[in-house]
Amino acid sequence: MKKLLILSTALGALSLPAVAQEVNVMGWGGAYSISQVEAYHKPFTAKTGVKVVSIDADNPATPIKAQVDAGNVTFDVASVEFADAVRFCDEGLLEIIDPAILTPAPDGTAAMDDFLPGTVTECFVATDVFATVIAFDATKYAGMESPSTMADFFDLTKFPGKRGARKNAKVLLEMALVGDGVPTSEVYATLRTEEGVERAFAKLDAIKSEIIWWEAGAQPPQLLADGEVAMTVAYNGRIFNANVTEGKEFEIIWDGQVYDVEGWVVPKGAPNLQNAMDFISFSTGTEPLAKAAEWISYGPPRASSAPLVGMYQDGKTEMGPNLPTSPANLTNALFSDLEFWADRDTDLNERFNAWLLK
Amino acid sequence: MSNSDTAPEILRTVDGQPLKEALTRASRSARIRAFLLVLPLLVFVLLTFVVPIGQMLSRSVVDEKFSENMLQLGAWFAENDSLIPDEAAYAALVADLKVASAQRSAGNVGTRINYELPGTRSMFTSAARRADEMAPPFKEAMLAQDPKWARPDLWAAMRSASAAATLNFYQAALDRQIGADGTFEAAPENVQIYVKLFIRTFVLSVVITGLCLLLGFPIAHLLATLPLRYASLLMILVLLPFWTSLLVRTTSWMVLLQGQGVINDLLVWAGIVGDDGRLEMMYNQTGTIIAMTHILLPFMILPLYSVMKTIPPSYARAARSLGATSWTTFRRIYLPQTVSGIGAGGILCFILAVGYYITPALVGGADGTLISNQIAFHMQKSLNWSLAAALAAMLLASVLVLYWAYDRMVGIDNMKLG
């Protein structure tokens, strides 16, 4: 018994230094992780021989804070929302990413000029643009007028029926203001005032009794499929997936879409720092970003990637019109203001939760 | 009784050692061996349970994000009682922000103050970015950047954050906040949430425990009294859902209860309700109560069953033969003997219900969520772990108080878990 114990301990100690060339990447799971594995992880391993270990988390931001606080970081790269990246960067939880490692576009445009403005910061490199939109089941509106604007979502007389909404103040307050007629360019200026916040809540009051609240991104397509709601707030990628993989006929109202970026960060004290930087440099190249958009309908944040995006994996669905970054979808769109939400996330959500209880 | 006349003869073992010593040694080695056997479990519990929970709870009273980064300002607060900051205070603030900017900790400082005064986080991060360019007089420089730096409540928040140990998170957990004059006051009506949620959590838990008892008592009685053949079948019916994954059971309830779900479809088909009058049994308190009662039912049935199994049927028969009615027999003979099972099942159900999280999150909608959902919100979304820890500590404390009250009223020794 004792011998066995010594032996296994010795083996355990031996196996530690054996894991030399790898990089651990934490993602969100589901179709989103699959797109990253196919577009980034596999080609990166093929090119460099460095093994990429894909780890899933509900929200990779939570383990970053936990592990950096505890001084025991087990992964090297994580996919997080922009607002979390900025917040963590200010709090010193992330490594600095030198923009010089980013690869230029094929035509020679410098990386920083190729990325959408503001989507690369000292700790963060964007990988995709996702949108929160309104979606409805086209089969339920066959032969009649279907909703087409954000205002329609808040109009119970014109379009009666339950509404699905994410149980969070973020995005929903912006949508309420857009639905109330505030131009997208003035939404955050309005929300910064007390009257603006009250106006948003008043707009929500109008449909509050009809709202079914959801928390996980997988719920809204399900609510639509079950006929539980007539319209719902949803992530565009989930709606797209339900359409192409399950043959649904959900339609997206791009008017008033709130788009946000996600991207890579490196937690402070990452065990394979050099590999992490190499991985980020590779995966944010023009081609991998375009390839990822062929697996999930999240738009590439580089201008040079857009023309390279081809068909979805089924070989018949054109990706372009399904991406939040497509020009037709951006006509009345709002870029989520991370500075605003970094400041007001907690208090507006507490107010939102109290509003729910009323 | 020993004979006091003769000196007691020392008993010895065969090899001449005093018996007492030999016995002590033998029992000591037995004790050490027993201790060594439980040592792995002890270490396991300490490392994976006591230490992490202790660390988490300590976060509710300690937050160093501000105090460890703002040393000069901390020193100024220690020397001055005044609520009105002078030039020296602003100079200390700017000096600290310079350091914070270099060490990339301005976000930490801002986050800490933002907990107390929402909307101030960006004041710290943007001031830190420009701290290097600032020149005296610092008061004017800071106010030129943002006049809000003169707010007394901001300085009160900074003063209270300059000590690492704080009770502010408990204040926040009781719906209190720093007011305009710098002292704590009740938060405005439209942001009060935690006290209401605590009350709702306890009321719902009591209701669910009561429903479990009402539904579980007859089943446990049947289990204990039916012939073995039927009892085993019934037992399997009780245990099968118990072994099924929590998520599966919760989503099955969603399929049954939702507006376009099985039950509503049946009711509409039978003409009991109209198509536009479908019952709302999901995404509200009703959904939470139904799903949680079903999930917690086995925790009531099993302890009840194990107690009822031991009650000899002859007692009830004796009562009946002495002329008691069946109700009196139940009330005075049977029920008192099941109290230990009711207590055990009740406490199990109640404590589990108070901390329930997934089920209310999925089926609770807006008015069926509990305090644990709010704790999860602060753990996973807002990342204000100190407030989450304070809420969790209050939940833990109230459960302990109830446990103590139960011990005083019923006696914990009476509890039988099986």
UniProtKB/TrEMBL annotation, chain A:
Signal sequence region: 1-20
Classification via CDD domains: PBP2_polyamine_RpCGA009
Keywords: Signal
A Pfam family reported for this protein in Swiss-Prot or TrEMBL: SBP_bac_8
SUPFAM superfamilies linked: Periplasmic binding protein-like II
PANTHER family (UniProt xref): ABC TRANSPORTER SUBSTRATE-BINDING PROTEIN, SPERMIDINE/PUTRESCINE-BINDING PERIPLASMIC PROTEIN
Protein name, per record: Putative spermidine/putrescine transport system substrate-binding protein
From TrEMBL, chain B:
Descriptive protein name: Putative spermidine/putrescine transport system permease protein
SUPFAM superfamilies for this protein: MetI-like
Alphabetical list of Pfam families matching this protein: BPD_transp_1
CDD domains: TM_PBP2
Keyword Membrane tagged: yes
Transmembrane annotation, as ranges: 32-51, 202-224, 230-248, 286-307, 341-363, 383-406
UniProt-listed InterPro entries: MetI-like, MetI-like_sf
ABC transmembrane type-1 domain: residues covered: 198-406
One GO location term (cellular component): plasma membrane
Location in the cell: Cell membrane
